[in-house]
Amino acid sequence: MSDFILNAIVRSDLGKGASRRLRRANEQVPAVVYGGDKAPQSISVEKTSFYKAIEDEAFFSSLLRLNIEGSEEQVVIRDLQRHPFKPLLIHADFMRVDAKQEITINVPLHVVGEEQCVGIKDQDGELHTLAVEVAIYSLPKDLPDYLEADISAVEVGTTLHLSDIKMPEGVRSVDLAHGEDHDSAILSIVKMKDRGGDVDENDAETGESAE
């Protein structure tokens, strides 16, 4: 599990106008931290370290250490609002976590073994990705940065589902907890010429000659 530390200060000047002034100063990002047995708290997060942290995809599925004026909270990111066309963060929501209670969070899904994949390398297939993240239950200490789907031995015409992912110890799929009917497809290896009904040019010429 990755280790991210963000520094923040308590924000007493509230409202849309105050948030705009904060963003205009370009040093802090308005945010709120909530959950647990404490009241929600408005804070401002130091911009430089925050912007650097969100470049790592693991940030969004990791337990974060939020240092608020010397008092540390363990949190996860729940929402991140971005400017519609500028590379700016507008607001962030952090949720406090309890080390003894499971949380629900989405983690990235990484496909590995593509270069060795039988269906791609030997059978003229290509990868169709149907999911890029997976919802899981986990204690904070067991949060994985990502999950892996190994396709090295997968043949063309095969579809992998959530149940084909090897979950780390202490991690469960949210969807599979609701039953087999929720075993969604995550990827497939399909024949290249089968995409959208495309026909190989050589096959078409052969068919015309036969007529």
Q: Can you offer a commentary on this structure?
A:
This protein is mainly beta. The protein folds into 2 domains: 4-96, Ribosomal Protein L25, Chain P; 103-197, Ribosomal protein L25, C-terminal domain (RNA Polymerase Alpha Subunit, Chain A, domain 2, Beta Complex), CATH 2.170.120. The protein is 15% helix and 39% strand. It is built from 4 helices and 13 strands. The protein has helices spanning 16-25, 47-53, 118-121, 201-210; strands at residues 4-10, 28-34, 41-46, 64-68, 71-82, 89-96, 103-112, 125-129, 133-138, 147-150, 159-161, 171-173, 185-191. The strands form 3 sheets. Strands 1-3-2-6-5-4 form a 6-stranded mixed beta barrel. Strands 10-7-9-12 form a 4-stranded mixed β-sheet, with no helix packed on it. The protein has a 3-stranded antiparallel β-sheet with strand order 8-13-11. A hairpin with a 2-residue loop joins strand 4 (64-68) and strand 5. It is elongated.
The span between the termini is: 63 Å
- Helices and strands, in order, run as EHEEHEEEEHEEEEEEH
Question: What ranges have pLDDT less than 50 throughout 5 or more consecutive residues?
Answer: 198-211
What's the main sheet like?
Answer: 6 strands, mixed, barrel
Write the CATH homologous superfamily of the largest domain.
Ribosomal protein L25, C-terminal domain
What is the fold's blueprint, element by element?
Layout: E1 4-10, H1 16-25, E2 28-34, E3 41-46, H2 47-53, E4 64-68, E5 71-82, E6 89-96, E7 103-112, H3 118-121, E8 125-129, E9 133-138, E10 147-150, E11 159-161, E12 171-173, E13 185-191, H4 201-210
Parallel strand pairs: 1-4, 2-6, 7-10
Antiparallel strand pairs: 1-3, 2-3, 4-5, 5-6, 7-9, 8-13, 9-12, 11-13
